[in-house]
């Protein structure tokens, strides 16, 4: 049996700016047969993208293949001169990046960018290339395949752009396509369409693929085999069904467990008597732009949203990107003052604008942002970041301050020695813990969690969820948990509100999700979450009329 | 308050690693600048001759043991005049650039954080100031109020504040949209904390580079003003004035006109090279 790709004993090293060598890939060997889709799965930093890039004979700057061989269709690609390698890229092996939006040039029409590969390699005349591109658009189930190429990248949606970048990769008839987390940035409803399109095109052309992802459920739908990676080493290789159903390696089991976090057990206690809810939001209207007549902003993002959050309970808010869920958190925190409506905290009305709220009111509601990279000042040490709310709200200093910072680090289960580091020197999960610790430093009663696990790996994210639950038990906090990921919401929330296009569609118990959700959009949303079952995508049936109705494209 | 006595854990608490890499060019430039600053401070002690005295009967004298850099158009010792001129050139320029950057950066960050009409009014006002050519503005101000050292400093600072403001504001606007600034704002922090602790550390690198560049511009503008006779007044002279006084010696190949020019060049080029080659902090990210 001839293998399209043969990787043997691959080692990749990188040099840090202090001149130290780091091993990124250690002794990796695997094969890919013709027409087979192999998934590389692992947490960030496990080397999955680095391996995928070596298949094109490419290493990121600073990295170097030190040992081993990468054979593509019988040819040793790492030994070829750069010019020969470049001639293979696009014709024999091609690449679909994670962020299609960042890899299209906004100044050129889509068609010109898609057929650029054929121009560079002189594959076919332009007219023929255009026809072929339209054919691919049709195969990828894009709307208006004949004319979509005449648009500019900003005129199509994210899911469409991702499919268009697949068309760009496929136009040179490659034998191998590398997908680098192509659906990670997409909403679940869009992800389903994109995955389906990828799958059918790959099957039809019998093209081999490498699918890089951290999401086991997505990979289970599309891959024939799965390679599990950790720290640049292969942990387990197996057929998709075997890996999903009978994982052998403990790390694979850990990944699978993280996929289904333990559902939340409501805190048992005698606090069942009805008490005033902690947070009440009544008919909130908010948006951007000039506030015009009747106190309406010109672009309305949130339209008459109301909910109640009882003390010690958690409310999840889910919806796809652009539905206004993050804006809602900003409105409650007062960062974006609401145009209309009322926010009551512990029965007292809060001013819509945070500048008019008292310091104590500000202290009780803390917001934790999605991206810990931008939420922590890179120029400050961890100790300074954590000390500031302590000084600001509680006015403590000296020895006591040091002790409190240590205590906070203990609370989020981080070693105390991290206090001297800068945010750039921490891992993603550690940064998110610091981000959380800063909110805890204020002794908040309510923490607004804005997609706090979305940028993290499943295992790390699951650990953060566990931490949140633990902290809730110890400190009787309440969370407003905003996410597009239903399984994490299910793991932590007592109630879930579904939002669509700035409106709250319904509020339900998380156990009811997937079951008797009353609203058709909720049903669509819940059904679109990938399941750890290889046949899920094929058996999924979606009402096209419903999809049409709830896709703002 | 519970009494928790936390014993120091046996695990070694690692101190932060500070490693700096010093580029050679940066070190050399730094030494030249330090040398000029020392000269500016100690000029009266090291100058061989009084600055205003005619010590040689020959004008535009050559380089001799007595007058290492020759003499000027009146027969005054050139070395002494350059050493004392450093005081004016370095001192006035440094004061002016500090003033300009202080005002410009503070206003720029404030405008970025406050935004709205405050930002608009301030930006347009300073844009209007930029639209006046700097030399003409300097000439007008100095001609109107008369030339004295404080006037010179303030004039130069006014001319270079808008540029500083523009750069600081542009950088601060980017930082201002970062989540950590939003977090600080949501915490209820005041304007002072926001600009000092959250925004300034993020823009300090480019701003320092701009500081150096602006210093160079100011040295050059001061020199050209002195060249036009509106800078430091005789018998004292900064380097620009020295070039102007002795321009007639150019045809005699007199050292009197070359050396002030070299002094200006050495200072400005050193500052420029220093800011391009600041010590780099090495922090190894991936080390756990």
From TrEMBL, chain A:
What GO CC annotations are associated with the protein? plasma membrane
Q: Where is the ABC transporter domain?
A: 5-256, 279-526
Classification via InterPro entries: AAA+_ATPase, ABC_transp_ATP-bind, ABC_transporter-like_ATP-bd, ABC_transporter-like_CS, Oligopep_ABC_C, P-loop_NTPase
Bilayer topology annotation: Peripheral membrane protein
Q: Where are the transmembrane segments?
A: none
**Which GO BP terms apply?**
peptide transport; transmembrane transport
Compartments, as annotated in UniProt: Cell inner membrane
Q: Name one GO molecular function term.
A: ATP hydrolysis activity
Q: Which Gene3D superfamilies match?
A: P-loop containing nucleotide triphosphate hydrolases
Q: What is its main location?
A: membrane
Q: Which PROSITE patterns match?
A: ABC_TRANSPORTER_1, ABC_TRANSPORTER_2
Q: Which CDD domains match?
A: ABC_NikE_OppD_transporters
Q: What are the record keywords, sorted?
A: ATP-binding, Nucleotide-binding, Transport
Which domain of life does the protein's organism represent? Answer: Bacteria
Name the family: Belongs to the ABC transporter superfamily.
**Could you identify this protein by its name?**
ABC transporter
Which species does the entry assign this protein to? Microvirga vignae
From TrEMBL, chain B:
Q: Name one GO cellular component term.
A: DNA-directed RNA polymerase complex
Instruction: Name the chain's protein.
Output: DNA-directed RNA polymerase subunit alpha
User: What does the UniProt keyword field contain?
Assistant: Cell membrane, DNA-directed RNA polymerase, Membrane, Transcription, Transmembrane, Transmembrane helix, Transport
Q: Would you kindly state one Gene Ontology biological process term found in this protein's UniProt entry?
A: transmembrane transport
> What range(s) does the ABC transmembrane type-1 domain occupy?
86-275
Q: Which CDD domains does the entry mention?
A: TM_PBP2
InterPro entries in alphabetical order: BP-dependent_transpt_permease, MetI-like, MetI-like_sf
Upper lineage: Bacteria, Pseudomonadati, Pseudomonadota, Alphaproteobacteria, Hyphomicrobiales
What is the similarity comment for this entry? Belongs to the binding-protein-dependent transport system permease family.
| Membrane protein topology class | Multi-pass membrane protein
Pfam families reported in the protein's UniProt record:
BPD_transp_1
Q: Which organism is it from?
A: Microvirga vignae
Highest taxon above the source species: Bacteria
Location within or outside the cell = Cell membrane
Under Gene3D superfamilies, the record lists:
MetI-like (1.10.3720.10)
Any transmembrane segments, and where? 21-47, 88-116, 136-160, 211-232, 252-275
